[in-house]
Design goal:
alpha/beta; Beta Polymerase, domain 2; 5-stranded mixed β-sheet; about 20% helix; about 35% strand
Amino acid sequence: MKIERKPQFVKAVMDGIALMDALKEKFGDAILNSEVRERRAGAANDVCGHDLWMEISAPTFTPFIENLFAYDFVNFHVITGDDTGDDITLIYHLSLFQRDRGARVGVSVTVKLPKSNLSIPSIFDVLPGSEYSERETRETFGVDFVGLPNKGLVFLPEDWNEEIKPLRRDSEGPSPEDIRELN
């Protein structure tokens, strides 16, 4: 991935609403759904930050992640997933840290992958902390993270049949015998 990084010293900090506007301007219809949620804290229940929730098209995933680095330092938290029938839905939980206290912006990026093509570029080369989440998602849902250097099992036993994906709700998921074996 080619990353355009934010200059080291920036005079203005972009809040969550302005960031969402900038992302919508850049990616347009590739952002399928979006929402900005206020984060409140303290006795006065003041707004102390924002969380951005976006669903993007799969082909836009790599340029979208790369673009986040233009705004500030990107911190990876975790990938969550769900078998929603015909698709596997992945949610990448990230945040942008900005120099002003309390200016953290949460960014949750949802991508739906059709079960007929469970492949997405790995973000390991730009966010190395994503390795274990990508490996876990691969072993539990069957998603192939293209470019992930280590695709070994993280949580399942070494002798696990890798054709069985424990969090799938279809024929790829575990049978009752497999579930008893895990107890």
